[in-house]
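Issue 218. Parser rejects a valid record. Input:
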Amino acid sequence: MLNPKKTTISALVFALLAALTLLGVRAMAAGRKLPVYCVGRDDRKVALTFDAAWGNEDTADLIRILGEHKAPATFFVVNQWVEKYPESVLQLHEAGHDVMNHSTTHPHCSKISRDALIRELETCNDGVEAVTGVRPSLFRPPFGDYNDTVIETVTSLGMTAIQWDVDSLDWKDLSAAEITKRVTERVKPGSIILFHNAAKHTPEALPAILDWLEKNDYEPVLVRDLLLEGETRIDVTGRQWPAEG
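Output the parser choked on:
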């Protein structure tokens, strides 16, 4: 037969340990340095982003579709892609899209040294600037892989690390309907939406997504225009807010 007193004590101990664990997890999350996953906004602005690291067969179609919908987008490019397709980089820039930094060789940034990361960042910055005349101010870590050192290094170069809160999963070769459903079910004001420039069904899905955004009063803007000005803070979910409030 169970001893009620011992059972009560055990339950209290368990509850205390659980509370301490939760506090520890929250403290770790609060202390960790984060990129911007999304932005706390009162309006319905969102940012379309495309990672460009490998192929290039669909870039012209993406430029055309975005242009037809007057939707600016931010392309995070790997410098190896810049070197291989400089004409596409220039076309993106001339079409009004931002060309930003996605590293030089697409490494896992948390697994390389700070000096190596700086070389990855600066080489890509140099490559983009040589083509567009504009030096990137934003960086998206390949694979979404980062740690405190990565964020600190990016910030030390006067750049901002950018993640996403809506993942289209287009790189998994989802159908256009599946991509559209994923995005439209998850988007909210201040969202940063992730696509890839060479994903199989993204050009097919993009018009329906843009139509849905327009019908629901969302306004696509460049990531740099989505970010808040002045002093800001990032909460434990990666959402950017004004520093006070």
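Fixed in the parser; the record now loads. The chain is about 45% helix and 15% strand.
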